[in-house]
Design goal:
Oligomer: single chain
Largest sheet: 7 strands, mixed
Helix content: 25-40%
Radius of gyration: 14 Å
Structural class: alpha+beta
CATH architecture: 3-Layer(aba) Sandwich
Shape: globular
CATH topology: Trna Endonuclease, Chain: A, domain 1
Distance between the termini: 30 Å
CATH class: Alpha Beta
């Protein structure tokens, strides 16, 4: 998984996003992600179809798409899970690596700013 240079000032998620979640009895919820020697990635999809396509290609049993409807809800969820991830990877494709990712703290700041909320 490698990052390609993307200017965060030019990349903005304008609509709802989807995460892939799996409810684990006695543990709560797990989210789909990946890991390299340098970072832990949370997978986020900008379109429901892309989330479904990933599930089909990756064969991620037990995972289902979860809609995150607003920037404030997105920022809150990222704050809750940020201890487990370093970066947010947008629209990953199974077997093709990660093309777009940003530091999770920066995504939280941008989502808070975009929702009109102050950083927490």
């Amino acid at each position: 998984m490698e990052d390609f240079p993307i200017d965060p000032a030019l990349f903005e998620v304008t609509g709802p996003v989807w995460l892939l979640e799996h409810k684990v009895e006695g543990k709560g919820v797990e989210y789909a992600g990946g890991r390299t020697s340098k970072a832990r990635y949370l997978f986020v999809f900008t379109d429901h179809h892309l989330a479904e396509k990933y599930l089909e290609e990756a064969g991620s049993l037990g995972f289902v798409p979860r809609l995150i409807p607003s920037k404030s809800a997105y920022a809150s969820l990222l704050e809750q899970v940020q201890s487990g991830y370093d970066r947010v990877a947008y629209d990953p494709q199974s077997g093709r690596g990660i093309r777009i990712s940003f530091a999770i703290q920066e995504v939280i700041k941008d989502a808070r700013r975009g929702s009109g909320q102050a950083e927490q």
